[in-house]
Structure formats: structure tokens, C-alpha cells
Amino acid sequence: MNNTNKKYLITSALPYANGALHLGHLAGAYLPADIYVRYLRLAGKDVVWVCGSDEHGAAITIRAKKEGVSPRAIIDKYHALNKETFRQLGISFDYYHRTSAALHHQTSQEFFLQLYNKGDEFEERTIEQYYDEDYDQFLADRYIIGTCPKCGHHSAYGDQCENCGSDLSPLELINPRSTLSGKPPVLKATKHWYFKLDQHADWLRNWIENGTLDGQQHHDAKAWKKHVVGQCLSWLDGGLQPRSITRDLDWGIPVPIDGDEAKGKVLYVWFDAPIGYISSTRQWALENGKDWEAYWKGDQVELIHFIGKDNIVFHCIVFPAMLRAHGDFALPKNVPANQFLNFEGEKFSKSRGWGIEQDQYLEEFRDFPNKEDALRWALTRNMPENRDADFKWDEFVEFHDKELADNLGNFINRVVVLTQKYYAGEVPQVSVRASEPLAEALQLAHQLARELEAFNFKQAALLFMEISSHGNTYLQDVSPWKIWKDEPDSPVVQECLFVCLQIVALLSLCSAPFIPFTAPRIRRLLNLPDLQNGDWPKTFEALDRGEALVPAGHRIGEPEILFAKINDRRDTVRMDIINRQKAKLAVIMEAEKNTPATPAAASSSYAPAKAEIQYDDFARLDLRTGIILEAEKVPKADKLLKLLVDLGYEQRTIVSGIAEHFAPETLIGQRVVVVANLAPRKLRGIESQGMILSAEDAEGRLGLIAPPDEWTGGWIVK
Question: How far apart are CA 163 and CA 146, in angstroms?
Fold first, then answer.
């Protein structure tokens, strides 16, 4: 294949526009893609990187209902927030679109019709679906809760049990109820369209397992990550089934078929979201005078999806099947899905405040110099490429101080300072251009490039730091400051600093994918122009020819500190910021330790067990069943609901911090477990006379711990 005409189309998973993104999201699908794309640009490749907000689906409408606003208000808020935080962190999308845009609606409807008109990709089914008679509407899966048939959890959703993680259908739930009215829904016939995913199973298996397509080699299957291939083959082994691609909702892309049969139906969000990659490319091309099809169609297209492991099946099975069914689109050459990033030993949890979101980081680290690259480097060094990883503040400090400050920053600073001191900032003249230290640094840089091309970003980052370590070792071994004292015109000193300046220039190039805010600062220290697309091969070719990147006689810039150490007794500002982050976590842990049966204490198995207690400690709790009679929001308190709970022998007012998870009207009639002997406490001027128990899953979603439906209030839980 002629690589000179190759076009790279890079995508990152469309983030859901119903909340802020945390650091785990950044490490999963966006930072690795940014590193890769920045490298491709420097390598002179024709590359387009697209992303955008996923703005349809029931979760958006549920959040809007909870907050008492329109879905449009929700998506506008979080689209703007996430787009801006991406920009501030140097995530350099070529285009960041949104699925509520007119062009996306048009693209999705055209895609649907292309498959629909083929006649053999869809099947129509009339099914029975739950319907809320009070609200006169069919219920999306997330609008239905009930008892899980597999683990007995009483607040399982219609698509998944958050307690045991089982995939469910609404019809499997025991005692289902609508989250809108709180009443049992009725079954009502409705018609939907299904994509015949099962008829694509054979070619999908060959394509994933062997990398072959229509008897031709499409990609190197061995280059795909083992956990990606393993998850896909597990799905294929289980047997693919037709998937519904329409839903009865009023928020989404209308099904583009005339007649009553499509009235009130929208494209299922899983179907329209990946088409967002296509519509984002179309919008980019429209605004830049480009041909979008050249990046999606033809054998010169290199399509790469960056995602987290929870999206593997959709990007390796479902979306490729959609693309092939359409008939015109290229299939992905690789899907280098990352695993999950934890935070200080536990899953990120918004409800507990466990973790930090992108916008929070930018705000709370606003006085931290080079905060963007400090974060990018720490996440890269601990990227969850093949297994789950754990972000720790102590490691953040260590990566920053030992690697960015002591290694990279110290080496560059010493070279610039010595050049200014000995030669007034002018690159010294040397007679010998062939340098073993420079050749070794170049060899490391070549290896670094190979690791980037193989999506091994953590290893590439280590090689980048190895180049700097190599320069430091060479400078220390020569120790030009010792020689210069007695022989200021020594050619050894001249050659040492000349070579070190070339290594610094090489580092300025290799740093750009990882720490793009610092790379131009290194270039300014050398008084070199900013990097341009295509500079990677030009730099390597120049060094291979024995040419200098910083020629003799060139005058460099004045020294500056690139990375001020965090752990510095003379200046505690940066360490104070870190200590405040640690203190927040300590407060959460202490509160959970001292508060019986908090949501965190009743959390899923992802959280480690707390310190051992005795039976007498537990026996002091008076746990009673109750039924929620009334629920309303507490004014000027986003997280609090005021509940009236019937305990059988009396009614109590309880203030609970669950407003971000439940709309008040969905709680009426809900059975709960209450800590009945908890000392009363005033919250926002309201005396709370107990605590209801709830449980949190790994994603921070809350479910109420509920007794069996036949239990009335007042039962003692033992």
C-alpha cells in the first residue's frame, strides 16, 4: 500500500453530555488519542481527529427531570463545559461536534434509510413494552425499576442491575414500576425495527480473530490488545442477536419513515451515537473545504477508535457491522481500548466526592504552574493500557518532581545555563560532528516512535525520559564545569555542550505529544521556531545526515525553570494544593468511618472493607422498614430531599442527600430501610429524624436498599 496517500481518521468515544468528566475519562479515551494524533501530525500524516457530545437517550431526560429543566438545558451546559475543559488540557480535536446538531440528525437518518432500503438488514417486530398510563407514554429501560431476578436487588433498572451488574430486559424485572409515576406499568404493543446483527457473525469473527476481510488481509490482528479481542470473541461465542434500533421517546432523532408506524419513535442512542463520528467529520470538512468521504471510504483510510473497555463491543462488533451493512465505509484498523483508571484505590464516585473532575482540577490547581502538563504526564505514566490502573496524589508528586523537574527540567536548565555562562548563549564551534551520545539518544527516539505507533504510550513516555536521563548522564560524566575552570577554551567542553544542545532539541520534539504546553517553552529556550507538521521525519533525517539541530553560532534564549518542584520546603504553595486534595479524601473516609450505613458504607464490592467491628457495635443500630409518603426538594440545596417516611408506628421527616439520583415524585410509595435511632440533626433548618440506607455502584449511581414489597413500615431489620 502506498502510505503517502494514507488518510488517518481518529475518533474518541463521544462523552455523554449529562455530567462533567473525571480524570478516568481523560486517561481512557482522550489523552491517549491526543498523544497519538500529535505524533501523527509531527510525522507529517494526513490526519483528522473527531469527537463530540452524545446528547440523546433516556439518561439525559432523567437528569433533566430531576433538575426541573429541559433536556436542551442539560446538553448545552455539559457540552460547553466538557469542550472547554478538553481545550484547556490540550486535547487537540480537529472537530468537536454534538449529536443534537442538524447535520448529525441528517447523517443518522440517511444512514438508517440506506440500511432500511436494502431490505435485508432490518426486521420489524411488534413487541410488548411497558407503558405508563398516568404519563401516557412508553417507558425507556431506564425509566423502569424493579427487583432483579438474579440477585434480588429491589432497585434494578430495566436494562441493568446496578447491584450485581447483570444485563436485563424490562420484562425480566420482578414487580416493575415506572420512575415517572411510581406505579406499576402496563404492557402495550408497539412496533420497532431491529438490526440483524446476527447475520454478520461469520465475517466479524474472521475480521477480529484473523484480521481478514473478504479473503484479504485487512489489519494485523496480533497488534490488537488481548483484552479487546477476548471480549469480542466472548460475545461472538455467546451468539449475536438482532438489536433494536428504535425507541418510543420524545427526545432523539425521529425515525425517518412516513406514516403512523414511526410516529413518536426515535433512533436508539446506541445506533445514532457512533454515526456521530461521521457527522463530526462532515461538519469539519464543510467548514474547512475538505472532502469528508476521503477519510471514511477507500483502502487508504486508517480508522482508529480510542475508547474505554466498556465500549469495546460497540466499536468492534456493532458499529463495524453497521458500516459494512451500509457498504461504503472503511472498517477500523485498530481499537486500542484502555481499561479503567481508579482513584486512590477506589472507583471514581461523584456522589461520594471520591475523585476529581476535569473542571475541578483546572479550578483547584489554578495556581499550580504547568498544571496541564503535570496532569497529562502523571496520567500517561500510569495509563491503564492493558489492566486497570490507580491514580494517586503521591505518585503525581513523584512523577512531577523526579521525572519532569529533576530529570528533564534539570538537564535542560543546566545545559542552557552553562551555554550562557561559558559562551554568552552562543552555540560553540566544534570540529567533531559524529557523537556517540547523540547517536544513542537518536536511537532511543526511533524506538519511542515505534512504541507510539504501536499504541504503547506508557512505554514511549519512559523512553522519552530515558533520552533525558541519557543526556544527564553524559553531562555528568564529562562534568564540563570542572574542565572549564582550568581550560575555558577546552574542545571537550565545547563538544559536550554542543551535543547536549542537540539532545535538548531532540527532546523538544519528542516532548510535544506528551507535554505540549512545555514543548514550545523548550523551543524558546533554544531560540528555535515552533514545531510544525512534518518536523518529526525532518529532524530524524537531519540527525542521520550528521546535521546540527542547533547549529554552531546560533544564539539560544535565557534560562528559565520549566518545572518548579512540588515538594519544596522553600515554597510550599504547590504542596499545599496537593495536601488539600488529600485532606478532602481524609474527610470523606473519616465521615464514612464514623457514620453508620452511609451510602458509601453500603456500596458495591468495589470498595475495600472497612475496619473490623464487634457484633455489639452493629446491634446498637435500630434498623426499621418504612414507606416514603412524601418527597420534595429542599430549597437552595441541590443534593437534599425532604422525605416523610411512615415507620408503621409513627411518621418521620428525614432529609437525605439523594436529590441528584432520584426525582422526588419517583420515590412516593418506595419501601426503604431506616436507621431509626440516629440522633436528630438539623440540615438547612429542617430536623432530620433518621437516615435511609442506599447503595452505590462503581459508577456512582445510587440505589435504595429496600425490603420486600409485602413488608409494611415498622418491621425490624435483623
Answer: 12
